[in-house]
Amino acid sequence: MELFLLSNGKVSGESELLGYAKGPIQSMLLSKKIRSAVLVPYAVIRGNYDARAAELENSLGIQVTSLHHFDDPVKAIEEAECILVSGGNTWLLNQMLHENGLIVPIQRAVREREIPYIGWSAGCNVATPSIRTTNDMPVRNSVVLPALGLFPVQINPHYIDAHLSGHMGETRDERIAEFCAVNPSEYVIALREGSLLHVSGDELEYYSVKAQGYKVFRHNQETHEYFDTQALAEVVPFRCR
């Protein structure tokens, strides 16, 4: 299995989509001789699907076609060399995956045929068991359906632990702690901007372009910041490096 799960698509001051992860992604594409990819664009609300595909073509150097151009989205996934899942609104994305019958086809493509999956922000969220740890608003009145479950642990992308002056609501840490209190057997991996998890076969690697750490949350356990895969080795059933 080949997964790139990115906290976000761009870092501050960078104009190129997936630019901060371009090195390891292109290395994988080259090693697998991948020349094209299918973009799952459903999370994009205030943008253009084709413009997003064009950004990815320029960044990754491969042909990228948005799924809305295919008469049969399921067949497109079944024939894809690589699957790209855009950021945007996680609620809308997950609902559209279910409505278009794409959950099982994507699972089979990634798990059985080892088609690479690259998802950022919302695309990272839906790769986990559920979207319960997304930061997005439920813009549609949809139930919380299961997500793809390619990665076995919940992720909170765009994680930030800054305390904003004048903000009287819960911090991100408090929100995640609430999730853990309701779901005491589950872990949440908090990924800062410019960071990603890379699964390749049975190995898991953490990368941060800003040399920042990630956090692992669980109910009634002290939360620490980690800069290597030490904590991941304890909660994720992949070999870490």
Automatic annotation (TrEMBL):
GO terms for molecular function: dipeptidase activity; serine-type peptidase activity. Its EC number is 3.4.13.21. Keywords: Dipeptidase, Hydrolase, Protease, Serine protease. The keyword Glycosyltransferase does not apply. One of its GO terms (biological process) is proteolysis. Gene3D superfamilies: 3.40.50.880. Transmembrane segments: none annotated. Belongs to the peptidase S51 family. This is Alpha-aspartyl dipeptidase. The lineage of its organism: Bacteria, Pseudomonadati, Pseudomonadota, Gammaproteobacteria, Enterobacterales.
